Amino acid sequence: MKNKLKVLRAERDMTQADLADSLAVSRQTINAIEKGKFDPSLPLAFKISKLFELPIEEIFHHHETE
Amino acid sequence: MKNEKKNKQIEKVTKILALWTLLWVVSLALATFGPKFLWNENTTWSILAIVINTAFGAGMIWANIKHLNVLDELQKKIQLDAMGIALGVGIVGGLSYSVTDIANVISSDAEIGFLVILISITYMIALLVGKKRYS
């Protein structure tokens, strides 16, 4: 699954640590999500969606080949 | 800051887990070596030492559950993956080791200590690999 987390974070001038703090997760988790190494749970995806005030499907994109 | 609070919480439960683990290890040593070196094979003392050791073991399991519950979802996944791999290697390796004893492939009796060492080393390696994979 691909995502726009890094772009959205950069647009808001947030560091990985800032975002991790806002979502109450570790910086390693944010880094792993941004790199596409880890897919967040649905509750975390909703938290991200709420934080950026965007629908989940605008942040996360599923690729059929995956 | 949410994460500062969370980090302090993780630090606290990790210390509690370390304390329970230490108590369990010390009580295990007492239950193992006590009968020979401390109370001259007295059954009552041995039973007491085993009961205390089991109680500390239960405390360690409870502390481990508490520790897992404060981790975030990726940290939890890394821990659970490592535990799953350690369990699998422990069962397969432990049974193979047991069969080598039953089939008299090895001259000495199979010792449970080797199984504990195998599980511990596998868990630590799997934990390091998991952390590296997601970094």
Q: Describe it for me?
A:
The complex is a heterodimer of chains A (66) and B (135). Chain A is mainly alpha-helical and 66 residues long. In chain A, 58% of the residues lie in helices and 6% in strands. Chain A has a two-stranded antiparallel sheet with strand order 1-2. The longest helix of chain A has 11 residues, at 42-52. The mean pLDDT of chain A is 92. Chain B has 135 residues and is mainly α. Chain B is built from four helices and no strands. Chain B has helices spanning 2-37, 43-70, 73-102, 112-133. The radius of gyration of chain B is 19 Å and the shape is flat. The model of chain B has no long low-confidence stretch (mean pLDDT 93).
How is this structure best summarized?
The complex is a heterodimer of chains A (66) and B (135). By secondary structure, chain A is mostly helical.
SSE topology:
The complex is a heterodimer of chains A (66) and B (135).
Chain A: E1 2-3, H1 5-11, H2 16-23, H3 27-34, H4 42-52, H5 56-59, E2 60-61
Antiparallel strand pairs in A: 1-2
Helix pairs in contact in A: 2-3
Chain B: H1 2-37, H2 43-70, H3 73-102, H4 112-133
Helix pairs in contact in B: 1-2, 3-4
Shape of chain B: flat
Most residues in contact: chain pair: A-B, 16 and 13 residues
Q: Which regions of chain B have little confidence, pLDDT < 50, spanning 5+ residues?
A: none
Straight-line distance between termini of chain A: 7 Å
Count every helix of chain B, treating DSSP H or I runs of 4 or more residues as helices. Answer: 4
Order of helices and strands of chain B: HHHH
Which sequence of SSEs, written as H and E, runs from N to C of chain A? EHHHHHE
Quaternary? heterodimer
Radius of gyration of chain B, CA atoms, in whole angstroms? 19 Å
Largest sheet of chain A: 2 strands, antiparallel
* Proportion of residues in extended strands of chain B: under 5%
N-end to C-end Cα span of chain B: 23 Å
Radius of gyration of chain A: 11 Å
Helix content of chain A: 55-70%
Q: Beta-strand percentage of chain A? A: 5-15%
Helix percentage of chain B: over 70%
Reported for the largest beta sheet of chain B, the result is:
none
Structural class of chain A: mainly alpha
Supply the helix-strand structural class of chain B.
mainly alpha
Low-confidence stretches of chain A: none
Order of strands side by side in the largest beta sheet of chain A?
1-2
